[in-house]
Write a structure and sequence with these properties.
alpha+beta; Immunoglobulin-like; Rossmann fold
């Protein structure tokens, strides 16, 4: 009897589980994009879709129309219908009913919907860029007063996929000071400007991921279909922080949006494709064309941001990427916001001024998409060059209000003859043209404007919008640069210096305390440096110089080439030159990527330097870098000890660098410890902060400690 009871209970349990499963699957499921607070594209036929049981009837009732709509779930569990939206306004509601389930969606607005995508400069939030304090108080006040309550915000959660996904994670939020603070700053200033000028609700959908190259946002089958893009199928451009496989972000963060009707897209990306700039126009054309085809909305507007000046270690890489972005204007219905004038700190790839970025993108949309006559929407764009005697005449588009030249020390125009040697140019303005000349160039053939990684804008139109960088020549540009490394010859106990480059078929020329040229020395063997100096080096190919010089400050150091014992390892990404990096005589600059800094990710610095013999020492000094934008922080307590025998150490000083206020700008902090005695061993410890502080965009992630030359006098 007991066995029968147990058997019956088992059967009952199975039936109950089946009933619960049936009830669970009977629920209507909607994509994350369809929910409370959403903005639907006005005056359009939009899609409403979701999932339910096979064969289930879904009824859709929208408060802006009298008739209900019916959809039948197909064999795969998908249902789909379309509905016409009215002119901008709201709020509205929508009710979806199935066999056993009803969903009510509230606070729906009709307006303009834009997708906002790219890498970190699109992803960076107001908070991540320092918060509201970067902008005038009235900008925050407008938000707190509810002036933008009908601007709605949707941020996709980061995700990757090898196959196209049908849904994403995220939800619509109304705009207030808290939600805007944690939203894309670029997208916000673009959308709020549209809202202000058009007077309609704006929906902003952010799909962005810092560090990502454009190929991950492009369908992989579209890349495969283009013979010229095969490079991306065999070259991985990712890291531990961002994906680099073609198509994986298109699949996970763009494909789920394709059913949602949009007006257009804005794009802020490019830094991670600076080393393949020659392929970038074709890649962008493929990406934009694929998005438009798969959305099925025609050639919707696509407006993008040109990258700002940045001190990249690869010569001309930024300038060439900006040129590639300029070429993307040939893609139909595109526009470009130039940012040559807003870099601020050129060591930071993330300009804080996203207000002007957003407004410049909005200028394109207001004029080209919405037909608003708001004045000029683009900075001057180079159009044509003519040689007239000993001068070159340049003409431009978008010169409304005339051309304006703003500069202090230099105008960033250079001119060259057939020898390809560029000289600073004299610039005269005549209407919408520039007359470029130089007394050093009698027969000019080429002009370049702001064509380096760090050149900033000097040419504007009457509307105050900057011109893009450009060059008129088609000459070979050497993108590599000379690299300096130290080698210690243990036999003669002397440091020598080697120059190298990864640029193809190039010679290296160098000189001391002046820029190298034809009169410089062609590098053939290691260089001996006998006194403090600046060492300059440049590359040449086929007799023509690159026009870019590398410079290093070399000092004398009693510890030069000494053996260093590390208690914790330095990062393989920032070796500074290896185990003699801290005593190689090469001093680092404020650029953390200059190759001379030695980095410790999350680890403390703990080293012992063996001078090889007991010598008389007056002082020991060391340098630490602060660059919060790159997650590099000053250490905490730094202690220095010395010893004659390596066993008995005496403390010569300690310093808690971070006892003061953390420095916002990039800077180098030098510590000096007095010795006044005979020593052989030096023990230096510096406490890494460990993780980025709570106010930092990388809060909780490992922080970096960067150290350079430890000098013994």
């Amino acid at each position: 009897m007991m066995n029968k009871i147990i058997l019956c209970l088992k059967h009952l349990l199975i039936v109950m589980v089946l009933i619960v499963q049936l009830q669970a699957t009977a629920a209507i499921k909607l994509p994350a994009l369809i929910g409370n607070n959403m903005v639907l594209q006005q005056n359009s036929i939009i899609n409403v879709w979701g999932w339910a049981d096979v064969g289930e009837t879904i009824t859709v009732r929208a408060s802006w129309q009298t008739d209900s709509l019916v959809a039948i779930t197909d064999s795969a569990g998908n249902w789909f219908t379309t509905i016409k939206t009215p002119v901008a306004g709201g709020p509205y509601t929508m009710m979806l009913s199935g066999r056993d389930d009803t969903i009510s969606i509230e606070n729906i607005m009709m307006g303009e919907v834009w997708v906002c995508s790219g890498q970190s400069n699109m992803e960076f939030t107001m908070r991540g860029l320092g918060g509201w304090c970067n902008y005038k108080p009235e900008i925050r006040d407008e938000v707190s007063k509810g002036d933008f309550s009908d601007v709605r915000l949707f941020t996709l959660q980061k995700d990757t996929s090898a196959l196209p996904l049908t849904d994403c994670k995220g939800n619509w939020l109304t705009a207030d000071t808290a939600t805007v603070n944690d939203f894309s700053a670029t997208a916000w200033f673009f959308g709020s400007e549209l809202n202000r000028k058009l007077g309609v609700p704006i929906g902003l959908i952010v799909a962005a991921w810092g560090g990502t190259p454009a190929e991950v946002w492009t369908p992989v089958e579209s890349i495969r279909a283009e013979a010229g893009l095969g490079f991306y199928l065999s070259h991985f451009n990712g890291s531990e922080w961002w994906p680099g496989t073609p198509g994986v972000l298109y699949n996970a963060m763009i494909h789920p949006l394709l059913n949602y009707t949009i007006k257009g897209a804005i794009w802020y990306q490019g830094e991670s494709n600076r080393l393949d700039a020659n392929l970038y126009p074709a890649l962008m054309n493929t990406m934009i064309t694929s998005w438009r085809k798969n959305w099925g909305l025609g050639d919707f507007p696509f407006y993008f941001v040109q990258i700002a000046p940045y001190s990249d270690s690869e010569a001309f890489s930024g300038a060439l990427l900006r040129e590639a972005q300029l070429k993307c204007l040939s893609i139909p219905n595109t526009g470009m916001a130039v940012t040559l004038d807003i870099a601020g700190d050129i060591t930071d790839v993330h300009p804080k001024n996203k207000l002007d970025v957003g407004k410049r993108l909005a200028l394109w949309a207001l004029n080209k998409t919405y037909g608003e006559q708001t004045g000029c929407f683009s900075g001057p764009v180079f159009q044509e060059m003519k040689i007239t005697g000993n001068a070159i005449v340049l003409s431009f588009q978008y010169t409304d209000g005339g051309l304006k030249l703003r500069h202090t020390k230099q105008n960033n125009f250079i001119i060259a003859g057939e020898d390809r040697v560029f000289y600073p140019a004299k610039v005269n303005i005549e209407g919408s043209s520039l007359i470029i000349s130089s007394p050093h160039v009698k027969k000019p053939v080429a002009v370049r404007y702001a064509f380096t990684n760090t050149s900033e804008a000097t040419l504007f139109n009457g509307a105050g919008l900057p011109a893009s960088s450009f060059h008129t020549d088609n000459w070979d540009i050497i993108t590599g640069q000379a690299v300096l490394s130290a080698v210690f010859d243990t036999a003669i106990k002397t440091l020598t210096y080697q120059l190298s480059s990864n640029a193809r078929e190039t010679d290296i020329f160098y000189d001391f305390d002046k820029q190298a040229g034809h009169n410089g020395c062609r590098y053939q063997h290691p260089i001996a440096v006998k006194k403090p100096c600046f060492l300059y080096a440049t590359l040449a190919r086929d007799g023509y110089f690159s026009g870019q010089w590398s410079r290093w400050k070399i000092i004398t150091n009693k510890a030069a080439g000494s053996k260093i014992t590390y208690q914790s390892a330095f990062s393989e990404r920032y070796t500074g030159g290896g185990h003699i990096a801290l005593v190689d005589g090469i001093t680092a600059s404020e650029n953390f990527a200059d190759g001379s800094w030695q980095g410790f990710e999350g680890n403390d610095l703990d080293i012992v330097i063996d001078l090889g013999r007991v010598i008389k020492v007056k002082e020991v000094s060391c340098n630490f870098l602060s660059d919060n934008h790159a997650w590099i922080f000053l250490p905490g307590m730094v202690t220095a000890e010395v010893s004659e025998d390596g066993s008995a150490f005496r403390k010569i000083g300690e310093n808690d660098i971070r006892a003061g206020k953390e420095m916002e700008a990039v800077s180098i902090r030098k510590l000096i410890f007095r010795v006044k005695g005979n020593i052989r061993f030096i023990h230096i410890k510096a406490k890494n902060q460990g993780v980025c502080p709570s106010w930092h965009p990388g809060a909780g992630e490992k922080s970096w400690l960067f150290v350079d030359e430890i000098v013994v006098k």
